[in-house]
UniProtKB/TrEMBL annotation:
Pathway involvement of the protein, from the record: Protein modification; protein ubiquitination
Keyword terms: Ubl conjugation pathway, WD repeat
Organism encoding this protein: Adineta ricciae (Rotifer)
Molecular functions (GO terms): protein-macromolecule adaptor activity
Name the UniProt record assigns to this protein: Uncharacterized protein
Amino acid sequence: MNYRKLKVQEVGTDTYIDYEANYQRVPCACAYHPSHDVCAVSYDNGKIRLYSTYNDTLELIKEFTCHSQCIFAIAWISDRLLCATSGDQTTVIYDIETGAEIDLLRGHTMSVRSVSKLHYSTYVLATGGRDSIINIYDRRYTKKQGALYPISSIVCAHISSTALQKSARKDTRSVTAVEFQDEHNLYSCACADSALKVWDLRYTYSRLNINHMPKPKRMFCVPIDDVKLINRLAGFSDMKMDSNRTTLFANCTNSKIYQFDLHESAYSTTTTPKISSYNGHRVG
């Protein structure tokens, strides 16, 4: 696929896709089609627009409404199926050809902020929410009351037991991104947690228990010197893996992008994984 930049135009304090001057909506997420010159862009009004990226004109192909609230994340499931998460606590899979709703995913108690599919499957999905819950879904399972529910959940994925004891509100830490490495390993990050966590999906994680919090298989942390520089808790707004699933890029709230080597030989219990960092942008 020949990727091209989406043109953007600054209007006041917000940034908009520069296609129609009268469409004053904030784009929240975008995802390139797996095999065609098409980019899907979601907006704060619950709509998704499909743009042709074949040339610089950014032709609008189609627009449809997916949710009643802001769409925080989108992901292509196949050539025709697009998945969208929203502030209405649900995730919906749509057929972009017909605009029909194919699957409705429930299981979160707050906004659903992230979604990822197992890269070689159209059935297995993971979502992360503002409730600090990670849900795993398999679309082959039977629906209940018209919706799919998680086959596995990780509750309090990015909340410490200390935070739970101190606050009745549980100090929820939003899961801002989830990413499959393979069918057994799922990575997650949060807006107020300086550690990227790796979860072994072969393990059944316990439900909320102050004395027994879910323990990740492995963690990748922001270097302590970088945390000290900003004098506040650093977190991550997003992360992506390369096509080989061996390198992870994570966008940190300290305005750095960290590159982590995920090769098994790159880390052990006694060594620190190699970390590179890039800067030049600002995470506001």
